[in-house]
């Protein structure tokens, strides 16, 4: 716990914890160089050097490479001391999209609001497109890894701990299981999969979650009753959910088992751009 510590020659004071993950702790930090009448705050991710292996080093390099893109959470400074590596990033006051969808900090930001939902979906697609255009594949797309402002918009992607430049990877059981494509589930351990198409599937799950406030299934596996029902009847996704028929038809183009037939990001954006209602 580094709360109260000053870093970067005393410039940043760590105030409280914003979140914890497998690769570090994120703090809200005060820039002590900012005026007392209008203090400036940042998010500071702290990685312990003792546990900073190749994956963490790769995370830093890939995030820094993408940082100048407006769809990616900006890294302003990256420095280290004897024990830690620090990433100073923009502080997004709305928290992550999971909180926005479920009404933690932003009261149900998108619920039954077509205009805001459309903007959030297009911005979310743009964050993943920014990665792919740079030849980087995120591999952990989910509501928790996109952050927003207090209105639930100005959405940006973060947490590149699982990202890669490889277009194909072996299934090793990593990732958030609710968002994994069928070709990435534990039944496929050891098999090769396309990181690009896996990101598209995860983005589809994220969009479904954003619209409906819940996940479509626990696992994209025939052993999951909801996914098995979807395989038998794709229209089952409409049951008990407020999602419009048009939004449902677009998402069906994402949830295709054959990666060759799965919709591409540019086409997915174009399809959602045409929609006026999501509920």
From TrEMBL:
Transmembrane segments: none annotated. ATP binds at residues 45, 159. The keyword GTP-binding does not apply. The keyword Transferase applies. There is a cross-link at residue 142 (Glycyl lysine isopeptide (Lys-Gly) (interchain with G-Cter in SUMO2)). Pfam families: Pkinase (PF00069). It comes from the Eukaryota. Keywords: ATP-binding, Kinase, Nucleotide-binding, Serine/threonine-protein kinase, Transferase. Residues 12-279 form the Protein kinase domain. Gene3D superfamilies: Transferase(Phosphotransferase) domain 1. The active site is at residue 140. One of its GO terms (molecular function) is ATP binding. Belongs to the protein kinase superfamily. This is Kinase-like protein. It comes from Athelia psychrophila.
């Amino acid at each position: 716990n580094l709360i109260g510590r000053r870093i970067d020659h005393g410039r940043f004071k760590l105030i409280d914890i914003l979140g914890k993950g497998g690769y570090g702790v994120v703090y809200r930090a005060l820039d002590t160089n900012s005026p007392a009448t209008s203090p400036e705050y940042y998010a500071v991710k702290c990685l312990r050097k003792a546990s900073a292996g190749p994956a963490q080093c790769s995370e830093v390099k890939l995030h820094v490479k993408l940082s100048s893109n407006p769809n990616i959470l900006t890294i302003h400074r990256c420095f280290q001391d004897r024990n830690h590596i620090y990433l100073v990033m923009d502080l997004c006051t709305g928290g992550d999209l999971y909180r926005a969808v479920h009404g933690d900090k932003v009261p149900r930001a998108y619920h039954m609001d077509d205009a805001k939902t459309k903007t959030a979906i297009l911005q979310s697609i743009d964050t993943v497109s920014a990665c792919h255009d740079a030849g980087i594949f995120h591999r952990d797309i989910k509501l928790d890894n996109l952050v927003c402002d207090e209105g639930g918009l100005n959405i940006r992607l973060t947490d590149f701990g699982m990202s890669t430049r490889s277009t194909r990877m072996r299934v090793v059981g990593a990732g958030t299981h609710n968002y994994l494509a069928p070709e990435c589930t534990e039944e496929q351990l050891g098999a090769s999969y396309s990181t690009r198409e896996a990101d598209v599937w995860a983005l589809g799950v994220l969009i479904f979650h954003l619209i409906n406030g819940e996940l479509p299934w626990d696992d994209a596996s025939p052993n999951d009753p909801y996914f098995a029902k979807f395989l038998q009847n794709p229209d089952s996704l409409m049951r008990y959910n407020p999602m419009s028929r048009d939004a449902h038809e677009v998402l069906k183009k994402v949830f295709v088992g054959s990666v060759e037939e799965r919709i591409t990001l540019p086409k997915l954006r174009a399809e959602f751009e045409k929609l006026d209602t999501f509920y």
